[in-house]
Specification:
Helices cover 33% and strands 12% of the residues. The protein is an alpha/beta fold. It starts with a helix and ends in a 9-residue tail after the last helix.
Length: 566
């Protein structure tokens, strides 16, 4: 589909790039042509309103960049073959005085586990190759109602990284590996499987947004899958409170923690996209959408305050997240930050102080520093991989593996006769039957341990573990640290706080900030540096305050660097 959709691109690009027959004099030199490269949503809207560019031209340039660079990056699973037609429709609407919303005529991409009826939705799994679901995601309806052009589906880690505990990020059996635009080279070590030398993060992908293939994209997260790729590709990511954005029409792992969210090149763009993704009223298909009240008009731009850090109190959860905790080999061990990462975070704290914030250091998380094993989050992780199979899982949370069987099977049932497989068990069998096609390159340990769960017999265990997750990460974790220190937010390095915030479903905003050595590259390789961001985490429904803090920090630093694509 990708190749077919790009057939008309060269002609379309030429149609908007006809050179002037004579060079104009300096006095009458035209303005530089508008470019989508590093352009914000606001830049695009102003250019559209001023007649400098059309939506067709925006989409054509975006498609041209995909054609030029995707062979190196592999950021795209499918391109919308009607993207230019939709752009023409938006242009006609604008000429007639009608603008649908803040994304009118703007190209946006969505992760391929988000259902679109006019584009395949595969989750990166070969069993779903070419699959068109019978209904679309609520968030896609919201995007189009705001005028967005859904230009493409992004690559992703297969089934949101719940296939195998050995699967690398942004790998799927349909697309292979995605590559990081900050160093789009494969790992050069002999015998390595072709994975990127600079990890992309996952399971969502920030590759295309970082490379200006589109204005922004929508990812999903169960634990780290918005924040991790945003960190690795120097983007702003907003992981919302679970329930703020409808999950209806999104392939699930565990509804307790699943959420879509925006990924963009600036806090402003991410805030605009967050407001569009949030529904005007609770979605009857997703009861969790009653969790948080939206701001007036669902407009998060009211929180874009340059002085947002003045008087703020920011806590530093030093134990585990900055400094080493525990012993190597034990569950919950943390080696802490590298010296380079510590330097980045010290620099960030200096900026926060200069902008009027108070830094409370340490503001350790009680459930992390406790020596009581029964109250310790550090030793209580997600059951994952064959070592945490049923019967060997007493010291980990079964929420993911129970949730995957419950919610994935329910999702398959919602597809009716169109479902390529009817149950998780059928998917596992299909993968075995098609192993020669690449379905089991890394095995399917996560699917296996999930299918071991008995939804009736194991329900009490699931409920107990879910309550434990929320208690240790929420009430005795983030909430306890916020309350004890009277702070607005916790400051996490990179995406390091993703897991603790994910368990109770709390929000985080990550902002691009520094670069650090790529420690995953082999010795002697001229590795380029890796992006390293700064995250602000709060309690449930605190997105507005977090956006204030993140925006003020971003405006004071402006450290994002475009990827060096040539």
């Amino acid at each position: 589909m990708f190749r077919d959709a790009l057939i008309p691109l060269s002609l379309a690009a030429l149609a908007v790039a006809t050179p002037a027959p004579h060079a104009p004099s300096a006095a009458f030199a035209p303005r530089r042509p508008f470019t989508v490269v590093e352009a914000s949503i606001g830049d695009m809207q102003r250019a559209l309103a001023g007649g400098r560019v059309t939506s067709r031209q925006l989409v054509t340039e975006s498609l041209t960049r995909i054609a030029r660079y995707n062979w190196r990056l592999n950021a795209v699973l499918a391109v919308n073959p009607r993207a230019l037609d939709e752009a023409d429709e938006r242009d006609r609407e604008r000429r007639n005085g009608h603008e649908r919303g803040p994304l009118h005529g703007i190209p946006i991409a969505v992760k391929d586990n988000i259902q679109t009826t006019d584009l395949p939705t595969t989750g990166g799994a070969l069993a779903f190759e070419g699959f068109r679901p019978p209904y679309g995601a609520t968030l896609v309806t919201n995007l189009r109602a705001a005028g967005a052009i859904v230009i493409a589906k992004t690559v992703m880690t297969e089934l949101a990284n719940w296939v195998s505990d050995r699967m690398p990020t942004n790998y799927s059996s349909i697309a292979g590996f995605g590559f990081n635009p900050y160093d789009p080279r494969p790992d050069p070590r002999a015998g390595v499987d072709g994975r990127p030398v600079l990890p992309t993060g996952g399971s969502s992908s920030g590759i295309g947004t970082a490379a200006s293939f589109w204005a922004a994209n929508v990812g999903t997260e169960t634990s780290g899958s918005i924040l991790s790729p945003s960190n690795q590709t120097m983007l702003v990511g907003i992981k919302p409170t679970v329930g703020r954005i409808s999950r209806y029409g999104v392939i699930p792992i565990a509804a307790d923690q699943d959420t879509p969210g925006p990924m963009a090149r600036s806090v402003t763009d991410a805030a605009i996209l967050l407001g569009v993704l949030e529904s005007a009223s609770p979605d009857p298909h997703d009861a969790m959408t009653k969790t948080c009240a939206a701001p007036p008009g669902r407009d998060y731009r009211r929180y874009l305050k340059r002085e947002g850090l003045k008087g703020a109190r920011i806590g530093v959860p030093r134990a585990y997240y900055y400094d080493a905790l525990g012993s190597p080999g034990e569950r919950g061990f943390s080696s802490g930050l590298t010296d380079a990462q510590k330097a980045v975070m010290q620099d960030a704290m200096a900026v926060l102080r200069a902008q009027g914030a108070s830094i409370i250091d340490p503001a350790d998380i009680p459930s992390i520093v406790t020596t009581d094993r029964a109250r310790s989050l550090a030793g209580w992780s997600v059951c994952s991989g064959p070592s945490d199979a049923k019967g060997a899982d007493d010291d980990c949370s079964v929420v993911f593996k129970y949730g995957m069987k419950r919610d994935f099977n329910a999702w398959l049932a919602s597809l009716g006769d169109r479902a390529p497989v009817k149950t998780l068990e059928e998917l596992r069998a299909w993968n075995h039957a098609h192993e020669a096609g690449g379905t089991l390159k890394y095995g399917q340990s996560q699917l296996d341990i999930s299918d071991q769960m008995d939804l009736a017999a194991d329900r009490a265990r699931y409920q107990t573990d879910r309550a434990e997750d929320v208690r240790l990460a929420g009430r005795e974790g983030i909430d306890a640290a916020l309350t004890a220190n009277m702070i607005d937010a916790l400051l996490f390095p990179g995406s390091g706080g993703a897991a603790i915030a994910a368990k109770p479903g709390y929000p985080t905003v990550i902002v691009p900030f520094g670069m650090v050595p790529n420690t995953s590259a082999p010795a002697g390789f001229d590795a380029r540096p890796a992006p390293f961001g700064v995250s602000f985490t709060g309690t449930a429904c605190s997105e507005g305050r977090l956006i204030e803090l993140a925006y003020a920090f971003e405006q004071a630093t402006r450290r994002r660097i475009p990827p060096p694509l040539k």
